[in-house]
Amino acid sequence: MSKIIAVEHLTLDGVMQAPGRTDEDIRDGFAHGGWAHRHDDPVQAEVMGRHMAANRGALLLGRRTYEDFAGYWPRQVGNPMADALDKTEKFVASRTGSGPLAWQNSTWLCGDAVTAVPELRRREPDRNLVVLGSGDLLRSLMRHDLVDEYLLLIHPLVLGSGRRLFDGVALGGLRTTDTVTTGTGVVITTYRRG
Length: 194
Fold this sequence. Notes:
Layout: E1 4-11, H1 42-54, E2 57-62, H2 63-72, H3 80-87, E3 90-93, E4 106-109, H4 113-123, E5 128-132, H5 135-143, E6 149-155, E7 174-181, E8 187-193
Parallel strand pairs: 1-5, 1-6, 2-3, 2-5, 3-4
Antiparallel strand pairs: 6-8, 7-8
Domain Bacterial bifunctional deaminase-reductase C-terminal: 3-187
GO molecular function: 5-amino-6-(5-phosphoribosylamino)uracil reductase activity
Pfam family, one: RibD_C
């Protein structure tokens, strides 16, 4: 059966909100957007490239993350990451979304995600579903014990505010399967349900 793999940038205090850009997610007055880029380095790029190659499958995104990605990545002409994301099938979970999706290879995931995601896994048993960002969706999946693996990029940074990955989620034990520390101090750790 396919796995659901969460790939998330986090601060030491667990914040996952807006790692990419200052205007990425300003909900609740969040003013620290773009915090992850100061720690980019070749080790991080190499680890993430290996992970992407090993876990080819489909993306599973919440509506807000999908809209953010769809407004950014298709415009990044000549960028290998953009090319890979364009070609990847994308399933978009939303309680309110309908109508056509503009970004190629994108499909609405109909119904409640907690019901629809296990059905998708049964239909596509050989393809992993990778969740990027999508905090609300991810926390919902976590509350129902549907996430099999976490690839967490933990940045040496404390923000003190922002939406956190594990808010409202009671997790059981996780087993560490791999850890790499980058030259900028990001700890990239893979955890599996234990």
